[in-house]
Amino acid sequence: MPHTTHAHLLMGLVLAAVCACTAYDPARDRKIPRPPKVVEWSHEASIPAPPEAVWAVLVDFDHYADWNPWIVSASGPAELGARVDIEVVLDGESRSMWHRITAVDAPGRLCWRDGGPTTAFATGLRCRELVDDGAGGTRFRVVLTVGGSARRTVETRYGGQLQASMEAETEALAAEVLRRATD
């Protein structure tokens, strides 16, 4: 084997070892906002479909544009540590952002936190929880937690919009789940 081939093979093994040692660990993620210095919004709804049906729509990021009024596009895998690129409508304008998935427990829980430069001042963590209601439906709960030095500014400037957006998104999620069930 030529010398450069050995070097490439060795470099590949080193990179593989480094990647294996640096798997994403939410417990070590310093950008996840944690109490007590946080503000929080939440919304709950009953969706007349099983958690698996709600989950299928929730993690189908490629089709958010079809139904979601808040996150008008999303792309990326629904996997722990994955990056999801999104376009969100906030304050009447569209903004490109990305999120890191911090929890994915099908079909019960999906969480992601903000990524990018704004996380130096404020970081949001959004968790969606799906619980079987025992009657063929899902109790859906979404919680948005914002931390960081600018959390109060986010609360004052965007709080009402964030709450309204979570409610609109939840309503649209329920409608999309029902639409898919009838197709």
Short summary:
Helices cover 34% and strands 34% of the residues. With 183 residues, the chain is of the alpha+beta class. Strand 2 (71-75) and strand 3 (83-90) form a beta hairpin.
Task: Give the strand content.
Answer: 25-35%
Number of strands: 7
Mean residue pLDDT? 91
Helical residue percent band:
25-40%
Helix count equals 4
What is the molecular shape?
Answer: globular
**SSE string:** HEHHEEEEEEH
In the predicted model, the low-confidence regions spanning at least 5 consecutive residues are: 13-19
For the termini, the CA-CA separation is 58 Å
Helix- and strand-based class? alpha+beta
The strands making up the biggest β-sheet line up spatially as 1-7-6-5-4-3-2
Rg value: 19 Å
Largest sheet: 7 strands, antiparallel
Topology readout:
Layout: H1 3-21, E1 38-47, H2 51-58, H3 64-67, E2 71-75, E3 83-90, E4 93-105, E5 109-114, E6 123-132, E7 138-147, H4 151-182
Helix pairs in contact: 2-4
